[in-house]
Amino acid sequence: MNYKVDVCIVGAGPGGALLAYLLAKKDVSVLLLEQHAAVGKAFRGEHLNEEGETILKEHGLFEQVEKQGLLRMEKLEYWHGGKPFKTILPDPQIGHLGIHVPQIHLLSVLLEAAEEYPSYSSMMNTKVVELLKDESGNYHGVRAMRDGEEMVIDCQLVVGADGRYSTVRKKAEIETTIRKHGFDLLWARIPAPDNWEPSIRMALIGDKQLSLFTQAKGYIQIGWNIEEGSFPKLRKQPFTPFIDQLVEAFPELEETVRDSIQSWKDFVLLDVFSSTSKSWGNKGVALIGDAVHTMTPTGAFGLNSSLKDADFLASLIDKNLISKLNNMECANQRKLEVEKLQAIQIEKEQTFALNFVVAV
Ligand SMILES: Cc1cc2nc3c(=O)[nH]c(=O)nc-3n(C[C@H](O)[C@H](O)[C@H](O)COP(=O)(O)OP(=O)(O)OC[C@H]3O[C@@H](n4cnc5c(N)ncnc54)[C@H](O)[C@@H]3O)c2cc1C
User: Fold this and answer.
1) For residue 360, is pLDDT > 60?
2) What's the sign of the alpha-carbon dihedral 340, 346, 351, 353?
3) Helix %, strand %, coil % for the chain, to 5?
4) Going by CA atoms, what residue is nearest to atom 8 of ligand 1?
5) How far is the CA of 17 from the centre of ligand 1 (A)?
């Protein structure tokens, strides 16, 4: 099957979905490709900060997301010995310390908004495997597979919004530098006890961060940093002493933790890294979000940065001048900003234990 559009976006994560909507609204013919059969299947962060919130509000999307369900974090607490010893409240101008938005809510609002425009189309269950290149080295489309069938999409611009392991970035031979952060992350979700307040709670286990994030619809997400590469060894050790540390840090959670996390299998392991790329695209390819600058979970910046990249790239794209898009503008505007956030992530990670000095 062959298709022809102005812009082909690879990846229906927050960055790709927002860009698809913004371009469709500008009457740019846009095709969004996603390898999963439905959106919201990829594992990703769900905390929106005020930057992401502002973008959604500017484009009239926030209200819809709020209708689907979200939860504003009312405080950040540092805990030691089973008690909070330091509480951070939100800046009254902002009114929260992050908003939990289930990814399915965010993505479905973005895609339903895009569906309103005839210039938008999408294909799920479609994996991009190759870029098409002409004799002068310019990219003019992608080759993708759906249910064993090959399809060719011809376009003026390919946008790689395909996340941390980006195929588009690799196929366009854009160099990337990966940085490891010295920790991996164990991730689990448990039901919140009754009357649990919408909050973020942090504790120090050994020298590692343990975080609880209240989620919409009555859940708590647990993020537990462990030594980089240590999980295979850790999971050979008895589970109970490990999980006891979580119960000791947050005693009110004893019942729900013991019911929901009964073995190592109840944790998901995440390989934590960040990356920067030499270029944000060239010759008919543009990269946004984690594809060009993978973020670690620290500080909840990644999803928000993808939304900002999409917003800025959309502002540069003119329906009649797509082939004239100057990717340098995107890189010039966004690269420094993102690199500052990545530096903040490293600082937060390296100084996390200092938050507990008064407590120990
Ligand atoms: C544990 C964890 C917690 C985090 N918490 C937060 C948080 O609270 N707040 C925050 O702002 N950030 C957070 N982040 C970071 C955030 O998840 C990412 O920065 C964000 O999802 C990046 O969005 P994106 O649209 O660029 O890419 P992604 O969300 O990775 O989406 C890429 C999409 O591309 C698709 N795709 C990939 N390859 C192909 C292909 N070849 N063909 C077709 N489709 C393809 C994928 O299936 C996926 O749907 C967290 C990250 C982790 C790992």
Assistant:
1) no
2) positive
3) 35, 30, 35
4) 47
5) 11
162 alpha carbon to ligand 1 midpoint, in Å? 8
Q: What average pLDDT is seen over the chain?
A: 94
Atom 29 of ligand 1: nearest residue by CA position: 13
Ligand 1 centroid–CA 13 distance in Å is: 6
Q: Is the CB of 103 under 6 A from ligand 1?
A: no
Ligand 1 in contact with 303 (CB < 6 A)?
yes
pLDDT attached to residue 324: 76
CA-based nearest residue to 65, from 76, 77, 79, 52: 52
Is residue 306's pLDDT more than 80? yes
pLDDT tens sequence across 172-228: 999 999 999 999 999 999 999 999 999 999 999 999 999 999 999 999 999 999 999
| Any ligand 1 atom below 6 A from CB of 160 | no
The pLDDT assigned to 114 comes to: 98
- pLDDT tens sequence across 263-300: 999 999 999 999 999 899 989 999 999 999 999 999 98
Is residue 31 within 8 Å of 11, Cβ to Cβ?
no
pLDDT value for 359: 54
Report the separation in Å between the CA atom of 236 and the middle of ligand 1, taken as the mean of its atom positions.
30
Do residues 302 and 185 touch, judged by C-beta distance below 8 A?
A: no
Atom index in ligand 1 nearest the CA of residue 15 equals 25
Query: Which atom belonging to ligand 1 lies closest to the Cα atom of 291?
Result: 26
Tell whether ligand 1 has an atom less than 6 A from the beta carbon of residue 284: no
- Per-residue pLDDT, averaged over 316-338, amounts to 83
Task: Answer yes or no: is the C-beta of 184 below 6 A from any ligand 1 atom.
Answer: no
Do the beta carbons of residue 131 and residue 168 sit within 8 Å? Answer: yes
For the chain, domains (ranges, CATH) are 2-46+102-179+272-351 (3.50.50.60), 182-270 (3.30.9.100)
∠ CA 96-99-100, nearest 5°, is 145
